[in-house]
Amino acid sequence: MSTVKDRVCNLERTLEEYIKNVGNSQMQTERELRVLKQEMREFKDEMRWFKDEMREDRQKIYKKWGEIANKMGTVVEDIVAPNIPSIVKQYFHGKEMEFYALRVTKRDLKDKANSREFDIIAVFDDKLLINETKTTPRIDYIDVFKNTLSEIYDYFPEYSGKKIIPIFSSLYIPDKIAMYLTKIKIYAMAMKDDSMELLNYEGIAANQDQTRN
Q1: In the chain, what are the domain boundaries?
Q2: Are 66 and 170 in contact (CB under 8 A)?
Q3: Is the pTM for the entire model greater than 0.85?
Q4: Between 171 and which of 66, 76, 120, 186 could a Cys-Cys bridge form, CB atoms 3.0 to 4.6 Å apart?
């Protein structure tokens, strides 16, 4: 028959074994958690890289799409034009457009020997939207568009009381070009995700606030 002393010894050994097993189990769990955290970090890094790659690939696709569409002569009709009504509502809170047309050819009433084609004209509320679309956004194209804007009422005297909303569009607009457009207060419209957006709307709004102040 075991004595009390023997039972105490057995209990101590059992307790020591239990503590040892718990310690080993805890160490194993901590190792597994460290491995899991490392794998999560690596997964997040891979996803970030994947998203960056997808974004870069998307921009390349938009640029190539624009080049192909331009060769086919459909860049305005097929890509830019369908986005104008939503741009009017989203950014300028326009309701219904009074007039909306593509490739409008107008004569300069001050000099009838001159005429010009406008890619898109949209009239709504107290505003006149003028859109210029180019597959390759270049500074010289933008400067020509800017100069034309100063004479816009010579072509459209019937809208002389309306505020001009100038938009320069392309499927892809580099940051440098967008910054230049912001500086001269012309909106830059390009593809972003699955639709076209004004890339510098907030920048132009900020410049206008500073001018008022």
Answers
A1: 1-72, 75-212
A2: yes
A3: no
A4: 66
User: What is the CB neighbour count within 10 angstroms for residue 155?
Assistant: 22
Which of residues 82 and 8 earns the better pLDDT score?
82
Instruction: Count the neighbouring beta carbons within 10 Å of the beta carbon of residue 79.
Output: 21
Neighbour order of strands in the sheet with 195-198: 97-107, 115-124, 127-133, 163-169, 187-192, 195-198
Distances from the Cα of 185 to the Cαs of 80, 142, 190, 200, 211, in angstroms? 20, 11, 16, 9, 12
The per-residue pLDDT for range 137-173, each reduced to its tens digit, is 899 999 999 999 999 999 999 999 899 999 999 988 9
Which CATH number is associated with domain 75-212? 3.40.1350
* Residue 210: band (very low, low, confident or very high) from pLDDT cuts 50, 70, 90: low
